[in-house]
Amino acid sequence: MTDTVAALTAAVAGHVRALRTARGWSLDELAGRSGVSKGMLVQIEAARTNPSVGTLVRIADAFGVTIARLLEPAEERTVRISDADAAPQLWRGDEGGFGRLLRGMNDPSFVELWEWRFAPGERHTSENHMPGTREVLHVIEGTLTLTVDGTDHEVAAGRTIDFLADRAHTYRNDGSTGVRLVMVAIVPNTEWDRRTS
Questions:
Q1: Domains of the chain (ranges plus CATH)?
Q2: Which residues of 135-170 are buried (b: 16+ CB within 10 A; e: fewer)?
Q3: Which of 19, 53, 56, 182 has an alpha carbon within 20 to 30 A of 91's alpha carbon?
Q4: Cα–Cα distance for residue pair 190/175, rounded to 1 Å
Q5: Are 13 and 55 in contact (CB under 8 A)?
Q6: How confident is the model at residue 78 (pLDDT cuts 50, 70, 90)?
């Protein structure tokens, strides 16, 4: 494990354990609320695995926090400047594409800023997020195909699309050149128990 991955894995482990115990939840309770297996949660809390973006989304939703909250260092500062190259890559495509979380905020609202790149032919399918979650994407290069509720939307460079992300959606590069975009995710400030949805 590289130092960066090890630090992120340790941060996630500490935050998941602290959030769970602060609520008085057992591992079984968190597993039920998040839809993540108890075995995986044990691995995460012991810092023995680097969870996927999908797993982090489910855990963050259960706690009512952003993914960024699970990844943040112990100390928060009033002003924070960070390098894009230091941001955690939470998705990697087979052809070199990636999705990285540039920054997230939890107070007063839950907002995440992402950078995504897709090589020709790459795609990323995202599960439904917490009810009420919205995503705003601005395409900088190429043409993105976004599928929401079974309908394709082509978004060319220089255009912006926003949509309800509380349903399954897929980002796709059907073109012959790379796609680069920035995305803002706005997440409701509430816990989500997947067992009741």
A1: 3-74 (1.10.260.40), 84-187 (2.60.120.10)
A2: bebbbeebbbbbebeeeeeebeeeeebebebbeebe
A3: 19
A4: 38
A5: no
A6: low
